[in-house]
Amino acid sequence: xxxxxxxxxxxxxxxxxxxxxxxxxxxxxxxxxxxxxxxxxxxxxxxxxxxxxxxxxxxxxxxxxxxxxxxxxxxxxxxxxxxxxxxxxxxxxxxxxxxxxxxxxxxxxxxxxxxxxxxxxxxxxxxxxxxxxxxxxxxxxxxxxxxxxxxxxxxxxxxxxxxxxxxxxxxxxxxxxxxxxxxxxxxxxxxxxxxxxxxxxxxxxxxxxxxxxxxxxxxxxxxxxxxxxxxxxxxxxxxxxxxxxxxxxxxxxxxxxxxxxxxxxxxxxxxxxxxxxxxxxxxxxxxxxxxxxxxxxxxxxxxxxxxxxxxxxxxxxxxxxxxxxxxxxxxxxxxxxxxxxxxxxxxxxxxxxxxxxxxxxxxxxxxxxxxxxxxxxxxxxxxxxxxxxxxxxxxxxxxxxxxxxxxxxxxxxxxxxxxxxxxxxxxxxxxxxxxxxxxxxxxxxxxxxxxxxxxxxxxxxxxxxxxxxxxxxxxxxxxxxxxxxxxxxxxxxxxxxxxxxxxxxxxxxxxxxxxxx
Amino acid sequence: xxxxxxxxxxxxxxxxxxxxxxxxxxxxxxxxxxxxxxxxxxxxxxxxxxxxxxxxxxxxxxxxxxxxxxxxxxxxxxxxxxxxxxxxxxxxxxxxxxxxxxxxxxxxxxxxxxxxxxxxxxxxxxxxxxxxxxxxxxxxxxxxxxxxxxxxxxxxxxxxxxxxxxxxxxxxxxxxxxxxxxxxxxxxxxxxxxxxxxxxxxxxxxxxxxxxxxxxxxxxxxxxxxxxxxxxxxxxxxxxxxxxxxxxxxxxxxxxxxxxxxxxxxxxxxxxxxxxxxxxxxxxxxxxxxxxxxxxxxxxxxxxxx
Lengths: 517, 306
What we know:
The complex is a heterodimer of chains A (517) and B (306).
Chain A: H1 2-18, E1 35-40, H2 55-61, E2 69-71, E3 77-79, E4 82-88, E5 93-98, H3 112-125, E6 135-141, E7 145-150, H4 157-160, H5 171-177, H6 179-184, E8 192-198, E9 202-207, E10 220-225, H7 229-238, E11 243-245, H8 249-256, E12 261-264, E13 270-276, H9 286-295, H10 298-304, E14 311-312, H11 335-344, E15 351-357, H12 364-377, E16 381-387, H13 389-396, E17 407-413, H14 419-423, H15 444-455, H16 459-476, E18 479-484, E19 489-492, E20 495-496, E21 515-516
Parallel strand pairs in A: 1-10, 1-11, 15-16, 15-17
Antiparallel strand pairs in A: 2-3, 4-5, 5-7, 6-7, 8-9, 9-10, 11-19, 12-19, 13-17, 13-18, 14-18, 20-21
Helix pairs in contact in A: 9-11, 15-16
Chain B: H1 2-29, H2 34-39, H3 45-54, H4 61-72, H5 87-122, H6 127-141, H7 144-158, H8 174-200, H9 203-210, H10 215-243, H11 247-252, H12 258-267, H13 271-299
Helix pairs in contact in B: 1-13, 5-6, 5-8, 5-10, 5-13, 6-8, 7-8, 8-10, 9-10, 10-13, 12-13
């Protein structure tokens, strides 16, 4: 009763205290002005990019380090920390000339030694280190040059360096602090220097005014971990954050209709595929695999579930990769043709299990249920096995004799915009448990063409080989290419210049010229 | 009292030991390998094997448990597989957020729940009673993620009075505390009402009224104090539950608390963190139960612990 009486007397004061400082809309609660707050669905595990995972996270950590080359708007490789490059030794060596005016956050100038040390560190520590698996040696050359030699000519080598994890760090800082300590406070030549990481909450970056490409226009960047999709959208609408990534197509529609927000949907280099175990019945028969492709109405999925904001994939190479062709995808929705093929294969009443890691991919549950209904129209019973991601990823990587998977949903991409990186998973070298050849695909023709395109340095001839590879894959159909996984970003209207920073590789280029208007 | 508490602590030790064994075995029975999850899609079997060796996951289960216990008795919970940081530091950092949230939420719950419960009991079957009980029912039945989202949409998006989430300012805790507090308030209100109704029928209440004690005194000094014993039990349980982390609230409001930390760690199979957090929560429950016992004795002089 005392409490009630006290509350009755004091409620105006309490309300005033609760709302103190709130006034009207206060962008970025608790943040100083001139701060860009970015909300991501993943937590920054460590500020050291060589030890981190998750593409949008890598895009944030890349602000601390910097890349040798980047991609321009047309998808061509553009000089960055490396101002030029040449090929030597008959195409086996790539020599980068490092800019002389690039400074590290500790004031030192970036040298060829820093680059060599950083590349070696990437090769030693990063989970993406297979990107440089073909490299034989990395050496510093006179004139601030770095020479990278591969075992054999490797056509996509230059493009590999746009992968942002291949970041330049300060060799002196790593040696001074020791590897473990350096990981807690990395020093590189990027537009933003690392300030601190509050685990489970945020990472803070501060502008580095001596950035070689120009003084950053925003003083601070805060990368917040906001795991819930609806909460990210609400935080953007409320003005708590300036940029968000990853939300549903329904939210995308709401964002598009809000005049204070900008919706960004770049073409995606990653796509969803349905893999079929090609070594075990019923999918060892190519006719059954073709039937599955005819039974699925991909256009309807993109239109209904993704509200037209995704794009149907028509090859097992991402749409924006070199040599991409759609013509080999002949599988337009045709349940009758699916029934006929299943009859021919002797499985008119096909029943199988479709497994996926629930919640891993945007709208995965809705897609699984839609495909189940479409399959039923072709007389196929698809049982859905919804698994926790940890369980699912362990299952698909089991060796064939212990692997129970029939059809699975996975995502794959290219980290460098090159087809090689995307279709390499169908090679025998990638068979589980070693790699990600989840459908256990094995083809002599594929192996021959795949090896040939890797060493082919003539761009036209290489393009032709990649086309042939797509033809082989679409005929054998170890996986059904479903749709490009959309990369939704959105910003408040006052964030100028952000959309062109988001790449098809779902990562983010250096933010030094993004402004708050 | 001291002897009783010492005994309680001793009894708690085997319970905590059982918790360590249970969680240790349970996590390893569940499919999914932390090394595979950590190594990611690109990993070779060599990378995975190296990670397993680094974290001692390739050793026999008994050896792993012995190592865990040997470190535990020295107050060392090991390092997180994901972050490589000491588990205890990680827990303490998140526990601060959880503790603030739990205290704020239980404050809201006790204030609202007790008031509504007393009001309902003092004027039973009146509009006040029905009104407060409907509110209590609504509090208990409303899914927290839904009420949380509604609060965000109203106070953060529509009115811009409060932040939508995070821990950047103290105002960030108001909406999650209300969202969580109203849920617990519903439970406390119902318990308070029924306990109060029970007490108000007792002879000593009639005697107090007959003696001419003012109604407010009857309610405060005689009825409420006696009705509080079961209510304190509920408050203790609710507080323990809140300290365990309000996973949904922490997720909706992007609070880096213990609950969401535990869930994320389970998804990543971060064994040392899971073991550490569960043990920490078990310990918190033991301590809260002891605290509740002490409060019983303070409320009711007849309760004595020997």
